[in-house]
Amino acid sequence: MKSLHEMTKDDLKEIKMIVFDVDGVIVPRGTKIKQIGNTTTLETKIIESKEIEQIKQLSKKGFLINISSGRGLYMLQEMFRKVLPFVVLTYENGSATWHKGKIYQHINSFEYLNDIFPKLKQIINKKIKGFEPKEFIITIHCTEKIPEIEEIVSKDPNLYTVWNGEAYDVGVKNQQTKALGLRQTMKIFKLKKKNVMAMGDNYNDTELLKKSGISVSADKTRVNGSFFVPLEGQFLPADNLMQKILSLLD
Ligand SMILES: [Mg+2]
């Protein structure tokens, strides 16, 4: 892995789309969620206005900006409200893509997840903070890993769990990953692997980074990339990368 400082203008030659993960990349890690009975409280994180400007500038330079997150669409729309005309939103680990009000669904996980959901809901454990509202995957926020969740899911050969340090995502094995979202988004915009640069920081970004022409890791202890930036640097990882790209094109 090379340091982002070593990126050159030549690396950008073929790049047409830049894919950003959200948590740990555009906003700091950590989701505040609380669930008491039927009341779920979920904090919306604010994107720095500097990053909003950078996204607009990259879009002006001709790059397609794809946000690829494990979060739900409603949340991403809220977070990216100021740049919605300039971004393509791929959500719930590649399950679907939103572009200018049109939704492309990439997987139907209903039959796969329908039986497991009530089983997971039945677990009583103080470490469970809450189920994040999602349409295509199941996300359970926990203060730490819970073996019971992993055991229940592992009994179903079609499903995976990914632990990202604050929550489990449960989805369809080998299918429902950010690579699916990338593949389908590339089809929509007629792009090739060499046209894609992607940045991610966590285990659910592994497949996305592997399928991108140029990958940038924002946490090299968790994912590999052609380049890396520090997670805890002076700037947020996406800010770092956008600064770099814009400076190379100046
Ligand atoms: Mg992340």
From TrEMBL:
GO terms for cellular component: cytosol. Pfam families: Hydrolase_3. Coiled coil: none annotated. GO terms for molecular function: magnesium ion binding; phosphatase activity. SUPFAM superfamilies: HAD-like. InterPro entries: HAD-like_sf (IPR036412), HAD-SF_hydro_IIB (IPR006379), HAD_sf (IPR023214). Gene3D superfamilies: 3.90.1070.10, HAD superfamily/HAD-like. NCBIfam families: HAD-SF-IIB (TIGR01484). This is Sucrose phosphatase-like domain-containing protein.
